[in-house]
Amino acid sequence: MNEIWKYRLLYVAMIIVLAALDQATKWWAVINLGARNLPITIIPNYLELKLTYNTGAVWGIFPGWTQGLAVLSTAMIIVILALLGRTHLKDRLLGWAFTFQLGGAVGNLIDRISYRKSVADFINAYIPLGGGEGGFWYRIFDALHLDSAREFAVNKIPTLYNWPTFNLADSWVVIGTLLLLIYIIIMPPEKPKEPVTELKLKELPNGSSLLSSEKFPDTAETSIEPASNSDSGSGIENSENARGG
Fold it and tell me: With a threshold of 0.85, does the pTM exceed it?
């Protein structure tokens, strides 16, 4: 089997694994968190498990558009699959980026077309922003004696930001997007094709031949055309005539 097809089969298998992991964790959350109706604290004040349902897209935008988002997700999956099928061995990082994006898209699509008609989210994270009295920015501005900035940190910058609840499928999409950005950054630029030199024997006015070169930008073949017998003969005759004279 061609090596590129081995990688493509690996990509497909990984997509299935990622979608299965997402669905397994969602079922666990629905059964356990739904029955408790109480969050499970993982890291106090920063990370907890809390079940919610999202009928829209990321960050809850377009609420109630479950069917439309399912159609849009299907179209995106088809496009990314087509792009994944065109990747080469040198584009393995790009292939893994598409794989994670597809794993996440398939996981959330299953939710949208299931009986729930919504995406189950259960990971609730709080991101520290350093605001509030005694917070990071308060201490920085206080040390610099910037009273107005210190008041701004107290009144305008929150202590924590409650990141929208998400799931593993959302995480797969984020990972795939980061890998895609890394690929774009480190991908070497394409070098322009250098013209290829083709060698030819050209006939001179006195009958002899001269080796010359011509540049052709669109060909990679190099050929040398030997002098014909008549050319060689005429060259010998000219030499003899010159001696005789």
Answer: no
